[in-house]
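Data deposition worksheet. Section B asks for the primary sequence of the deposited chain exactly as it was used as input, without tags or linkers unless they were present during the calculation. Section C holds the resulting structure in token form. Section D is free text for depositor observations; keep each observation to a single sentence. Incomplete worksheets are returned to the depositor.
Section A, Depositor: J.P.
Section B:
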Amino acid sequence: ASVSTQSTGYPFLCVIMFFDLFSKNNVGSPSPWTRTLILSISVAIIGSSFQFGFQTGCMANTLATVSNASHLDLGKTTQTIVVSGNAIGGLVGGLAAGPIADKIGRKKLMLINNIPVLVGTVLMAAAMNPAFKYFFVFGRIVLGIASGVATGVAPMYISEISPVSIKGAVGVSHQFMITFGILVGFVLSMSKVLTSFPDYWHVYFALPVLPALYQLVLLPFCPESPNWLYFNREREDLSREALTRLRNSRELANIELEEMIKERTTATDSVMVSFKQLFTDRTLRLTLIIGVALQALSS
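Section C:
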């Protein structure tokens, strides 16, 4: 599992590193890319971002094959729930991701999120038994919850562990793996592929187990988000330790930690804006409309 999934994430990260070598930010300074940072990013985007993409694209060509399976025979209403189940679960997972990540940490949430991935996969595989055909629907919803959590916590984690000079490039890697996951889900579900093993379609839906295992095995070796350790846990010592691992430099870690301390001091003097003010304050309303419009148009 580690070998097959590792080959998908690292090439893209290597491309980013190649262009980063020629960026102005790195002239006369050491490269911000360290082994620990690359490992942490790859584990996050393969185990979380790819999962979201795969679940988004996996039903495009498979619904007819699955619905017409002799032992499953899903009705129109059930088919509708199967397709929308991922979005329903994703809504729940996406809304819960932020508060839970702030409570227990980004790293721990990503680890725990592999549980619904494995449970959902088992439920969908159990649908091979006619007596448990509706497990396919439940499994789809559970995987949707996992996808929602994944797309909420993964970009948060990779952004917080990355130095300022490459945050943009690292942020793109999340979107890239989502798109790559959609592509993989779509290609592997093409009729020429699926019709070659109509009685083994459950194997296709078991593929998310591979990136989940990759993340379960390697994520414990990755550091927690330094930002979460400092701002949420108020553990300056642990934040410095995580930064030292990520930057491979005690000096750079201290500099970045000093910036966090300044940021926290500034934040205490700033005025908080309420949710109501987003709609009542004219200066904030325009910003809100632009943000919503950009999200809507990009979708």
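Section D:
Residues 1-10, 21-26 have pLDDT under 50 and may be disordered.
The two ends are 32 Å apart (CA to CA).
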